[in-house]
Structures are given as C-alpha cells and as structure tokens.
Amino acid sequence: MDPNPQASWSVDWAIDDRLKLASISHPIHLRLHELTQGAIPALGECWIAGGQFSGHEEWIPRLMVRRQSTDEPLTSTFISVIEPYAGRPTIRSVKRLDVSMGNSPARDEQAVAIQIETASGETVVYADAADRSDPAAPVCQLGNGMAVEARALVAVAREGNPARIALFDGKRFSSGHGEVSLKGIQPVFEIEKNTNETKILRGDPEGVEKMALEVSIANRFKLKRKIPEECGES
Length: 234
Known about the structure:
Elements: E1 9-14, E2 28-34, E3 40-49, E4 57-66, E5 80-86, E6 91-96, E7 99-101, E8 112-118, E9 122-128, E10 139-142, E11 147-158, E12 161-175, E13 178-193, E14 198-202, E15 208-213, H1 217-220
Antiparallel strand pairs: 1-2, 2-5, 3-4, 6-8, 7-10, 8-9, 9-11, 10-11, 11-12, 12-13, 13-14, 13-15
C-alpha cells in the first residue's frame, strides 16, 4: 500500500500462459495506467478456483484503488487506462488533462479528459463531461487548448495534425487547427481528416454549420520522429 502515490502511476503484469493458448511468441503483458487523484493503491493477491470444480486453488495478483474522506459527500471519479500488449508497450505516455466547465476557470474534478501518446506516433484525447443530468451538451475547456461542446469526445492526431474526431451528443469542437460546428446536437458525429479532404464517417452532413480543419504545412512533410527504445518506467 502506498499512502502518498504520485499523481499518475502504472503497474505492469507479465501474463503466465500456463495453458499455452496464445498464438504469439512474444511475452504477454497487461499494464494499467492510474490517474485517479487522491486515491491510495494497494497490491495483493486473490484466491480463485483453478478449474471447473476441480478444487485446485490459484492465487492471482489484485490491485485495489481507494479514496476516503472525513467530509461529506464523497464523490469520486476513478480514471484508469488498461493496456494489453505483447512484446513492447503500445503506449508511450498517459496524462490527465484539466477540464473546466462553461465559463468557470475552476477545474472540474468529476469530468474526465486524458491524453495518450502511442508508440506509433499518434496522440489520442478522450474527454467525458460526466454530468448526464443536463439535456444540453456541456461546454468543456480542456487543458491542452481544445474546447468541446459535447458529452464525450474522442480526437486522434498524427504528427500533430487532426486525423479523426468523434463527438457524442455534441455540436462543437475547436482546437488550434480549426473548428467543427453543427447546427444542433447529434448523437454521434465522426469525421476523418487527411491532407486533401475531410470525410464524414457518421452523422448528418446536412447538419454541419462549419467544418474548417487545417493541416500544418510544416508537419505535412515532416519525417516521423524516432520512437525511443524505452517507453518509460512502470
């Protein structure tokens, strides 16, 4: 148990393929990236039955993450990223982004926004406003400069340029590369961006009010940066 963990940490389990069911030769791992604020982690073991009523016992690793408070009410948002991989990790880094709602500059602790840098060079941003009580799409300001009017967002960038954007129960997205605005809230609106065109994958094209996303000329011809051999500590 760690009573004073870092703001973000990870744990990596090596999977023992005892029954030899995996079709790959690389070592199999499961890594968990934990971003919950003010929580205490504890590692332990858990007993399970090793077969179908065979009576053979097994002990497997277990992780518990817990928040406590002497003040009421205690409302918690647990944030984790689970990464299965074989051989080398697929994630280079994970961080939690600050989220402010509406015109308030204060950080909203219940809303979720994370930014993932992958080993293949992509940047993935996921945001969730958390509050489902208001039928209107909430306005969220993210710590990386993005603004979104939606209940949830998934945005993917390649080499610093927008590649894919999905809004859920939303109507607007903006960043340093431009803006996507809809005439009204759509349940799902997803686009794919390349150098020459923007393609609507899901959603009503007639409901688009503005769609202007620019690809940086400086990045357009930039060679991919070399991925370091080591992907960070766990």
